[in-house]
Structure formats: C-alpha cells, structure tokens
Amino acid sequence: MKCVALTFDDGPGPKTGTLLDTLVKQKVPATFFLVGNMINVDKAMARRIAETPGMTLGNHTMSHPNLRLIGTTKATKEITDNTLLIEKVTGVKVRFMRPPYGSHTKATDAVAKKLGQAVVNWSAGALDWQYNTAAKVVAATMPQLAPGAIVLAHDIHPWTIKAVPTLIKKIRAKGYTLVSLDDILGPTTPGKTYTRGLHP
Ligand SMILES: [Zn+2]
C-alpha cells in the first residue's frame, strides 16, 4: 500500500476548526505540531484537535525559535515547556517533536529522547509559507509525493486550509492512502530523527 501522512505545523490557528471539519469529513488522519504560544491563544482548539478521532498532537516548541541558534538551556526549555503545556491543556503525552525549520542538534535530540519524543521532519513541503494561493500549494506539493512521504503544511494559512480538500482528492487519485504518523513510521525510537515513513 502506498501511504502518505499529512502534518500541520505552527497552530492552532483561527481556521484550524475548518481544517478539522474537512479531515473528519474525508476520514483523513493528520498530525498537528502545536506551538505553545498559539495553544495559549486558543486552548479550546488545542483540545478539539486532541479529541478528534484520527488526530495526533506533536510538539513544535513554545515560541518557534531556531533551536540551533539559542543555546542548549533555552532550547531545552522551549521543548520541555511545550510538552508540559500540551499535557496540561489536552491531557496528551506527545510522542513526536518537530523542531522549527527542521533545525535540531544532538543536544535537542537528547532532550526529545528524555521526553520520549521521536524527532519528525518531512519529505514533502507544501511551500505554503512561500505561496499564498490554494492552487499553488497543491501544485507545489504533488510532485514531491512518494510512497512513505510525510507532508509538511501549516494550518495558520487560510490558503492551506482551502487547498486541503483538493490535495486529499489528488493524493487519493494517485493511489495513495492517507495514514497517521504512527502508521507511516511504525514503531519509533525517542530522540531518533525521521523524515519519511515506510515505503514497501
Ligand atoms: Zn513551524
């Protein structure tokens, strides 16, 4: 089976609810790498993601710094504080961490390991930070797909939310099954980095 997993970073955002409606309607699982400062803006939305069947929560730090550039003490706090916040707000103990900009170090990997989190980057970027229309986001994503692909998009952009129904349709038309991060990665090891899933 050819599988692809969708991941959404930097939220929750104002339109995350609309995205959840789409994912539920289309029976598509997804992972949300939440930013602590955004959770504090909309705790109810963080809880809603957690309570929606098929959705996984991940750690995307408190304030989205480049972990390579802020020193180990601050980086440790960024990763740890958001872990605790997510657990406090949603009750979920996260098992996946995505470093902002994909930028991590041996030291930050060790923090993730200690917290029981695998480091998950991506193999296909929706480039929705670069483009600002749904059509461009879909066009940028499709050629990067391959069996086992982990797609990175951002639920803080309205054009991304708008692109998702088309993206799902086109991904399925190519014969892919949309699966969760757990399904595409299989068993993971805390502290280890993953950029793509299984591709039998
Ligand atoms: Zn991010």
Summarize the structure.
Helix 4 runs parallel beside helix 5.
Structure description:
- With 200 residues, this protein is an alpha/beta fold.
- It has one domain (2-125, 145-155, 173-194): TIM Barrel.
- Helix content is 41%, strand content 17%.
- The strands form 2 sheets. Strands 1, 2, 3, 6, 7 and 8 form a 6-stranded parallel sheet that branches.
- The longest helix is centred in the middle third of the chain and has 19 residues, at 72-90.
- The mean pLDDT is 97.
- The protein is built from 8 helices and 9 strands.
- Helix 5 links the parallel strand 4 (96-97) and strand 5.
- The relative contact order is 0.21.
The major β-sheet equals: 6 strands, parallel
The SSE string, one letter per element, is: EHEHHEHEHEEHEHEHE
* Low-pLDDT regions: none
Tell me the Rg in angstroms. Answer: 16 Å
Structural category is: alpha/beta
CATH architectural group? Alpha-Beta Barrel
End-to-end gap:
7 Å
Strand coverage percent: 15-25%
Instruction: List ligands, each type once.
Output: zinc ion
Helix content: 40-55%
Could you name the CATH class?
Answer: Alpha Beta
Calculate the mean pLDDT score and round it.
97
Give the count of structural domains.
1
CATH superfamily: Glycoside hydrolase/deacetylase
Q: What is the CATH fold-level name?
A: TIM Barrel
Number of DSSP E strands:
9
User: What is the count of DSSP helices, taking H or I runs of 4+ residues?
Assistant: 8
Characterize the overall form: globular
